[in-house]
Amino acid sequence: MAATVSPDSLAARPARARRPLGKRLRTIGFHTGASALSLLWFLPIALILVISFRSTDDVLGNGLNALPHSFAPDNYSAAWSGGGMQQALINSAIVSVPAVALTLLLASMAAFALSRYKIPLRRTLILVMLGGNLLPPQILLVPVAKLSQVFGLYDSLPTLIAVEVGFGLGFYVFVLQGFMRTIPAEIQQAALLDGAGAFQIYWRIVLPLTRPALAALGALSFTWVFNDLLWPITVLITQSKMPVTPALLSLQGQYVSYWNVIAAGSVIAAIPTVAVFLRFQRHFIAGLNLGAVK
Amino acid sequence: MSSYTVSRRGLLAGAGAVGAAAALSGCATATAPAGSTQQGGAVTLQSDLSSPLAEQAMQSLVAAYSKQSKYTVKLNTVAATTYQPLLPTYLTSANPPDIYTWYAGNDADHYSSQGLLLDVSSAWKTMDNYQPALKTLSTDAAGKQIFVPTDYYWWGVFYRKSQFAKWGLGEPKTWSDFVNACATIKAKGAIPIGLGAGTGTAWVAAAWFDYLNIRLNGADFHRDLLQGKHSFTDPKVVDVFTTWKQVLPYFDPNGTAVSWQEASNQLLNGKCGMLLTGTFFADAVPKGSIDDLDFFKFPVIDPSVPDAEEAPTDGLFASSKTHNAAAVLDFMTWMATPTAQNLWTATSSGTVIPANPQATAPSSALVQKGKSMLAEAAQLTQFFNRDSTDALQNTANTALIDFIQNPGKLSSILTTWQSQAEQVWKTA
């Protein structure tokens, strides 16, 4: 995608200086509008950042939305050690990284088979996978919880990884097979003539060509798995095994919540996803039109 | 609720078949954490006391227990907001946590009637000095004790002493005093009564219903009503709402929009004059401001009705499926001792009264006042959901919020409430 866009923008650049007034006004309008919108988007984040640096007495006495009267960076250490964010981040990493790697591996294999070979019921399989994605995951909460108990898999991180992989797979297969179908058949035929087997074609030809899609999906799925709350609280019960999202929730009290510590915890919890986003920013945007163009 | 019964039945069938698997995983969890010896063993304590102060207090309790016992207790704190919906799931799971923090009364009885709770009568053998009322509260319909109370607290109309002095107000004793006080506060430009029944804390409105009902119709009628022995369309219930209407104009107009924690903020910074709340309120008060706070007993409306007060009791119950009943009972017996309860009241926010009469309650004037108010009360109630079920609480939330917003629609609100409540009683 990126390769087709960049020559265009290079070609357009010299022309920009001689643009008519109307077009320039439109550009100015776009930029003021966009910055106003992004400011609006940033406002809640700024509020969280401000709250995370206020002291408990300040928040309790003056209310959440008051201007800060104090500076208390120790909220972060309270959330990190006392609130258990440290262990929670480790748990999240233990779950997210294998879950993403495993989903991408399995999904790309399935997508390769479904897109490059004439498998009977291929269309039905893809539609079933897509259909499964349209169902809300909530209806499977009780079956998943009960089954994991019956199989003795309840309350363990590998179970959570398996559940996350299972629920992500359908969508990733659907997206990846759409992408793999755009790879010209000639490349595969050439490899076949050179004596490559199915696995070699998959591993050495198709997979490298699918890299942009894999990177985009990997970045997306990392944020999804990392930010998931539903499955962790369904299959886990022990506090020390909980990933970031339930840990953040458990900072809330029964009656009274120390919002400054919760805000500090949220900031800590947001760092990994923000880091992944910044690193894979390009792929995120590419990910939005995955499978949109054939 | 019925779905739990069905799934539990299915589960019991499954549990028989995979009993071996469950037992294996049970061993794994029992030996893995501390490598404890066979005659000791670890049990899990599932706690919903997730506010930082309460969690630390629980941690120090568990540490103190483990130091003097051959058993170890592993504390699992779960967010209060997720604990309540997940509690039935915990209790019905194949390998459930052993001990749970929860409420005494009808709510515990409800789980016991499904066979989910452990008989803790043997722990009660050491608890002869407890008030008989607490024992009754901890006994299920079948006559066995299933609950060990650790502490209780009270509800009252909280206010700031300095604000009341500024407005020239004293503590109202009767309903007409109270209405006059509301008028005075309104004339001074503040909101007389805060509520905080907004998102997530709609249940606080039920405190008003509870108190008006027990002041007008008495605690017995109130309990019977919540058990389905009277109808919500009863003229006595209509009385509750007509009395409520007298003070409704003095309620915070945003009372059903702001959360309880925001309402407590309004009281602290003087925007509102009074707030009917439980003592957990003290957790929301910055250090140093607590001395300015005081409360008065909910005003008497009909002097011929004996005074009853809300005194929600917290404590522990245990799963009947525990693998280590000896350890569970040992821990619960220890939690009933003055030593444990003193530790708890000293490390938590300090506004609860220990359940064991031999334990020392915090010496603050606020706690002593609350303790004597409860001691003088003819009867004690718990709270709407604790005297009924969480399902009935949901119907109350809908009805009460609707009433506060549209007091004119009272009769249709009560009819709807009654039909929803009938659904709950039918399925319970």
Automatic annotation (TrEMBL), chain A:
Gene3D superfamilies: MetI-like
Main subcellular localisation: membrane
GO biological process terms held by the UniProt record: transmembrane transport
GO cellular component: plasma membrane
Domain ABC transmembrane type-1: 89-280
Entry annotated with the keyword Transport: yes
Localisation per UniProt entry: Cell membrane
Keywords attached to this entry: Cell membrane, Membrane, Transmembrane, Transmembrane helix, Transport
Alphabetical list of CDD domains matching this protein: TM_PBP2 (cd06261)
InterPro entries in UniProt: MetI-like (IPR000515), MetI-like_sf (IPR035906)
Annotated transmembrane regions: 28-53, 89-113, 125-145, 157-176, 213-237, 257-278
Superkingdom of this protein's organism: Bacteria
Membrane topology of this protein: Multi-pass membrane protein
Family in the record: Belongs to the binding-protein-dependent transport system permease family.
Protein name: Carbohydrate ABC transporter permease
Automatic annotation (TrEMBL), chain B:
Name the record gives this protein: Carbohydrate ABC transporter substrate-binding protein
InterPro entries: Bact_solute-bd_prot1 (IPR050490), SBP (IPR006059), TAT_signal (IPR006311)
Signal sequence region: 1-30
Alphabetized PROSITE patterns for the sequence: TAT
Pfam assignment, any one: SBP_bac_1
Coiled-coil parts of chain: none
Keywords: Signal
